[in-house]
Specification:
3 domains; six-stranded mixed beta sheet; Acetylcholine Binding Protein, Chain: A; alpha+beta; 9 helices
Length: 473
């Protein structure tokens, strides 16, 4: 009896030890295996079935299709001020509900969504960007995501080339605001409604995914909703601030350096003509920078940009300085010619001082006046004819005529030089030119200081009046 009881206990123990393995084998063998194809077959979504792509997926046509729109700015690729264009990379997400496609996840092994349904098999809203002027160059996303509750999601990247009305009055310290307006082409607000995330959510998402900003600093995104012609519009206003360092270094500072060179040229001597050529060269350099600026800024701006006023003002001041240099050099040149003439006259007087001159003498017994030779200089050439002929009377006549012609020539030269007799003091016009130059230097420096203060004040007022606070950029 004891042996029988012991054998029974051993048999029961063996059965108990082997039972969990047997149960697990039965459980594995009874587990259901599911796939995405089972769900698609249940929903009757197939390549040959184009019925679901023709119209909105609703059971009652009076119901609205609500589309949730979310965007994030992935990169600022460029801003063309000349063409008034804004190029950006966007990440967009569209979500809407379909009344035709839903299932119970428990019937399909817990499958909650299908991540890769071709777009051609399902309807999608016809949402466009109103400001786009070029085709989207980003590769299109070929798939949709379908959730078990009937939600359809479309995620895609876009390269948007859009128009943007830029305000360049304060260039290069400007802040630009470009808008992207999303709307449906054919559906009214009774059929399709657009809903978007708030401005703060869009700004946070953009800051999270933003990769490149070019020469711009992203500030924020403002989201507004409106309705025009019974069509919903969602407008995203992207605010950006320009980084001005490159333009300051390449445009503003060089022009200011040329202005400083022009001021320094005021202390160059007027003799030799180097001062005039130097000033002309500096003005041509400023003209080259103005041509570069003209290629950057649009010609359709309603207001003259401050940087254009800055360049034109400095160019005008340099032109005024050039005119002053021309006047001063002209006045000093008059004294120079007069000095050269005096040196020539002195040289001629030295050549003639030893030649005899005829003076009135005694009367002979025949009643004729006899001329005597004096120390007054007479040109040697005038005496040659009479000397060769050997006729004393004709020689005396030639000397008298020569004296009269010399006096007439001096009077005519004095009249042609100045229009009136000079005061006889050497360097008269040079002293006048130096006084003009000194007065001009003080006035020129004061004009430059006033102009720079005016431009700095205007730029400061415009920047702080129109720009977004720096804490938001």
């Amino acid at each position: 009896m004891t042996r029988v009881s012991l054998m029974i206990l051993l048999l029961v123990s063996a059965l108990l030890l082997s039972a969990p393995e047997a149960w697990a084998t039965d459980e594995v063998s009874s587990e259901k295996v599911c796939s995405y194809f089972d769900v698609l077959t249940q929903l009757n979504i197939s390549k040959g079935n184009e019925l679901y792509t023709m119209t909105r997926p609703i059971l009652d046509y009076r119901n609205q299709t609500i589309v949730h729109l979310e965007i994030a700015l992935y990169g600022i690729l460029g801003m063309d001020e000349k063409e008034q264009m804004f190029v950006a990379s966007l990440l967009t997400s569209l979500q809407w509900h379909s009344d035709l496609f839903s299932w119970n996840p428990e019937d399909f092994c817990g499958i909650n969504y299908i991540p890769s349904i071709p777009k051609k098999l399902m309807w999608e809203p016809d949402i466009i960007i109103e400001e786009m002027i070029a085709e989207d160059k980003a590769p299109p996303s070929p798939f949709l995501t379908l959730y078990s509750n009937g939600t359809v999601e479309l995620n895609r990247g876009m390269v948007v080339v859009s128009t943007c009305l830029m305000q360049i009055f304060s260039f290069p310290f400007d802040t630009q605001r470009c808008t992207l307006t999303f709307k449906s082409i054919t559906h009214t607000d009774k059929e399709l409604r657009l809903l978007a995330q708030g401005s703060n959510a869009a700004t946070r998402m953009t800051r999270k995914v933003l990769r490149t900003q070019d020469e711009w600093t992203f500030c924020n995104v403002n989201v507004t909703k409106s309705s025009e012609d019974s069509i919903d519009h969602i407008t995203y206003t992207i605010t950006m601030r320009r980084r001005p360092v490159l333009y300051v270094v390449n445009l503003l500072l060089p022009i200011w350096f040329f202005m400083c060179l022009d001021v320094a040229s005021l202390f160059i001597s007027e003799k030799g003509g180097e001062k005039l050529s130097f000033k002309v060269t500096v003005m041509l350099s400023v003209t080259v920078l103005q041509l570069i600026l003209n290629d950057i800024l649009p010609s359709t701006s309603s207001r003259i940009p401050l940087i254009a006023t800055y360049c034109a003002g400095i160019f005008s001041l340099m032109l005024l300085s050039l005119c002053e240099t021309i006047v001063v050099m002209h006045l000093m040149e008059k004294d120079f010619h007069f000095k050269v003439k005096e040196e020539e006259d002195c040289s001629m007087d030295e050549d003639k001082k030893d030649l005899p001159m005829v003076n009135k003498g005694d009367t002979d017994k025949n009643g004729q006046t006899r001329l005597h030779i004096s120390d007054r200089p007479v040109s040697t050439s005038s005496l040659l004819p009479a000397v060769h002929e050997g006729k004393p009377g004709e020689t005396e006549l030639h000397l008298v005529v020569l004296g009269l012609l010399t006096e007439i020539r001096k009077a005519l030269e004095t009249r042609l030089e100045g229009g009136q007799v000079r005061d006889g003091k050497p360097g008269y016009w040079t002293r006048i030119a130096k006084r003009i130059h000194v007065v001009f230097i003080y006035m020129y420096l004061f004009s430059i200081f006033s102009f720079v203060c005016y431009m700095a004040t205007r730029w400061y007022m415009v920047i702080h009046h129109d720009a977004t606070p720096a804490s938001q950029c």
